[in-house]
């Protein structure tokens, strides 16, 4: 029998390490404000010294995760760098070489893996996505346009007199009515809970180890990241996959109209394709009709599993939310679902298409998603190439995600039913990729490390790592 001292020691040894939220950027751990507005900005660095000076100036305005709930800043500013951006800043070669190969290559070079072909091919992306000219990504969120302008002014002052720092891209975004996305579905409902980041919600899922999302902590395999080097650069950092999508709302509506015999059936088919009703109510909990009260209840609309729906009669296997997050549906398979989670920060751009309109009005509308995780290859790339694109893991062959899959007019969507399943055919491409980048989002101390590269040459050498890590 353990003594009180031994029991206390055992409890302490199994307690997850406390996250250094004051050193982790807020964008990583905290959801966007509600309501929200904001702007994405991409900068090009033409001179390393000016780039580091820009970082020194902007650092006081980068929001840390510990101030997200009661921020002292008028808005939330996050900063991340592409591989080309780190090179342009003068990050030492030893550090650059230590980054994972997928980050070094960049998203555009990984197009074959990500199924980015046809309309989604990098050749069709907006400039500067997929080019060597995209170096620094700024994500600015605020609750009001007035606060947004305040933060934009602070960001502008960080480089306005630095002639070799140039703005190469700007895009405003904002919340649509009722918090819906352009397709009309309630947006931003689910993210995995990061162990140690705050009180867990009422979700049926347990917390995921912090090391899956932030470097410097054990992940689901019990491993702690040991690259990039040195430890000062990686500690409390993470990777961000940026994806900008155009959403063809009119095509989505036309397809539903063609497949359904009534407006009610249109809504049911839309819910089957997504896995939720437009209100946010999950099909698993509301299989026959929408339940707006359930959809609005943040404590209940994610508190579900697929244990009682292993035949997909409530929520089809190929529904969007079930594909990108199978939850416990794969518990008897060899797939370790917790190894493939990422944090999702989504925003919308463009005005909604008016209700009832079935023809595209030529206006750009869609979403930008920041997909955050410490392991690009086994998180974003795995989900995109396997769960979104390949239907074999659910015994559906080449069937892709019906909503975000790169369908070309010959897509298929299977709806399990008794006695006979239904198969929707001729799925077009509802979502097109407009651009994407892989970025590294450092912790605040790492930002200072980068900013001081020209002050202390010794810090450019690989140095001793933190206890328990190896270079």
UniProtKB/TrEMBL annotation:
Keywords: Iron, Metal-binding, Oxidoreductase, Peroxidase, Plasmid
InterPro entries according to UniProt: Dimeric_a/b-barrel (IPR011008), DyP_N (IPR049509), Dyp_peroxidase (IPR006314)
Record carries keyword Transmembrane helix: no
Cell inner membrane keyword on record: no
Domain DyP dimeric alpha+beta barrel residues, every copy: 77-171
Molecular function terms, GO-annotated: peroxidase activity
Cofactor: heme b
Alphabetized Pfam families for the sequence: DyP_N
PROSITE patterns associated with the record: DYP_PEROXIDASE
NCBIfam families: Dyp_perox_fam
PANTHER family: BLR4509 PROTEIN (PTHR30521:SF5), DEFERROCHELATASE/PEROXIDASE (PTHR30521)
Protein's name in the database: Dyp-type peroxidase
Origin species: Sinorhizobium chiapasense
């Amino acid at each position: 029998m353990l003594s009180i001292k031994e029991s206390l020691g055992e409890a302490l040894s199994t307690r997850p390490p406390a996250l250094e939220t004051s050193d982790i950027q807020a964008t990583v751990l905290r959801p966007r404000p509600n309501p929200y507005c904001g702007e994405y900005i991409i900068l090009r660095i033409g001179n390393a010294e000016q780039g580091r000076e820009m970082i020194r100036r902007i650092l006081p305005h980068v929001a840390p995760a510990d101030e997200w709930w009661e921020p002292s800043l008028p808005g939330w500013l996050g900063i991340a760098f592409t591989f080309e951006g780190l090179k342009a800043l003068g990050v030492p070669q030893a550090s650059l070489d230590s980054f994972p190969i997928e980050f070094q290559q960049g998203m555009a070079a990984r197009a074959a893996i990500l199924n980015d072909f046809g309309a989604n091919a990098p050749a069709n992306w907006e400039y500067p996505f997929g080019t060597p000219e995209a170096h620094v990504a700024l994500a600015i969120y605020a609750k009001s346009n007035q606060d947004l302008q305040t933060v934009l002014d602070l960001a502008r002052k960080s480089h306005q007199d630095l002639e070799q720092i140039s703005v190469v891209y700007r895009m405003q975004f904002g919340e649509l009515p009722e918090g819906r996305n352009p397709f009309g579905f309630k947006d931003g409902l689910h993210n995995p809970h990061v162990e140690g980041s705050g009180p867990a919600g009422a979700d049926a899922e347990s917390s995921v180890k912090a090391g899956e999302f932030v470097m410097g902590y054990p992940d689901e395999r019990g491993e702690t990241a040991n690259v990039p080097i040195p430890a000062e650069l990686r500690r409390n950092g993470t990777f961000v996959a940026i994806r900008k999508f155009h959403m063809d709302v009119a095509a989505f509506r036309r397809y539903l109209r063609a497949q359904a015999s009534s407006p009610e059936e249109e809504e049911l088919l839309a819910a089957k394709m997504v896995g939720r009703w437009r209100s946010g109510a999950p099909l698993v909990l509301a299989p026959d009709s929408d339940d707006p009260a359930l959809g609005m209840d943040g404590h209940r609309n994610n508190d579900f599993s697929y244990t009682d729906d292993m035949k997909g009669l409530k929520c089809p296997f190929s529904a969007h939310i079930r594909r990108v997050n199978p939850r416990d549906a794969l518990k008897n398979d060899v797939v370790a679902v917790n190894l493939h989670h990422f944090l999702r920060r989504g925003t919308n751009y463009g005005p909604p298409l008016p209700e009832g309109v079935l023809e595209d009005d030529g206006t750009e509308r869609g979403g930008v998603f920041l997909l955050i995780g410490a392991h690009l290859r086994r998180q974003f790339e795995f989900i995109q190439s396997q769960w979104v694109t390949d239907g074999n893991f659910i015994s559906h062959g080449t069937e892709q995600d019906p909503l975000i899959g790169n369908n070309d007019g010959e897509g298929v969507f299977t709806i399990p039913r008794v006695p006979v399943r239904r198969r929707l055919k001729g799925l077009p491409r509802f979502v097109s990729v407009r651009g994407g980048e892989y970025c590294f989002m450092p912790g605040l101390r790492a930002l200072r490390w980068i900013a001081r590269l020209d002050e202390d040459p010794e810090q450019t050498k690989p140095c001793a790592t933190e206890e328990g890590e190896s270079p």
